[in-house]
Amino acid sequence: MITATALRKRFTSERLALDDVSFSVEKGQIVGLLGHNGAGKSTIVGIMLGMVRPDHGEVILGGISVQRHRTQALRQVGAIFEAPSFYEYMTGWQNLRALCALSGWWIDAEVHRVLELVRLSDRIHHKVATYSHGMRQRLALAQALLPMPRILLLDEPTDGLDPEGIHEFRSTILKLREEQNLTILMNSHLLSEVELMCDRCVVLHGGRKIYEGEVPSDGGLSAAQPRYQLLTPNPNLAAATLKALGAPYDPSSHLVSLPGGVSGPQLLARLVQAGVPIDSWSPFRQTLEDWYLQLTHSDPASNQQPPSPSS
Ligand SMILES: Nc1ncnc2c1ncn2[C@@H]1O[C@H](COP(=O)(O)OP(=O)(O)OP(=O)(O)O)[C@@H](O)[C@H]1O
């Protein structure tokens, strides 16, 4: 449903904002675009919305090129891009009418359905000036959902929302996918949000794609390669003993990777037999944050392969 191919963009002569970025999103998927500040996430959404012209590459939405047939391609798209702004002195309903007047689309029953979905029905005839940040975001989502897009592009949709607002927004998005099979691409800094909402993620670093695939879950990571954390007053003895046992040990992170066929308690018993003093020995569960930090701390300029979810 969304295909980005070889996107390149340079705003200034210093460095590329996007360097040969390609990825795709299947129908009905929710995909998160992750990356530090300045990684290139908003530039990608800007290119998808035809607001930023790429130096090279193309975006195809639902089979139509944004660069060649912008109007037709964007007819299938609803978006929240950067901070949504509304006419403060008008009601939410009047704002929606004004925005929909641009496309000529308005079906009362459909608007009411969307307002129910985003839980804004009871305040829609109040002035936007009286809305909270969360209500403005819900109005922005209602506007993005009119007139019934197939694709939603969301740029930091939960920015500035409180935990309850984030929770509500998340359930609305998941409901939308379930009921309407929408294809959703969202930018986010929030790993927890991506973990809870997205099927897949694309990680950008310094304008380059460094990962595209499933959002690694904590259980999968730990089960794929069990690791233990060892705290010892004698790391040199521990390292030598573990090396002889075929268990790589990193004294800086205190992590030991278990060799095949050996359990954590068995390895601990061998360390004790070898006289290694032990302060603590505990299973290490890699979180999404650990994985993300490891991934983004690899040098984007080098050609090294980033760690896979199971590393
Ligand atoms: N209009 C512009 N003019 C000049 N440079 C720009 C422009 N827009 C973006 N950039 C630069 O392009 C790079 C990517 O910016 P972009 O906004 O896409 O990153 P981002 O991942 O969305 O960051 P953030 O999470 O902070 O929003 C940055 O170095 C940024 O300074």
Automatic annotation (TrEMBL):
Belongs to the ABC transporter superfamily. SUPFAM superfamilies: P-loop containing nucleoside triphosphate hydrolases. It comes from the Bacteria. One of its GO terms (molecular function) is ATP hydrolysis activity. Keywords: ATP-binding, Nucleotide-binding, Transport. Gene3D superfamilies: P-loop containing nucleotide triphosphate hydrolases. It comes from Phragmitibacter flavus. This is ABC transporter ATP-binding protein. Residues 2-231 form the ABC transporter domain.
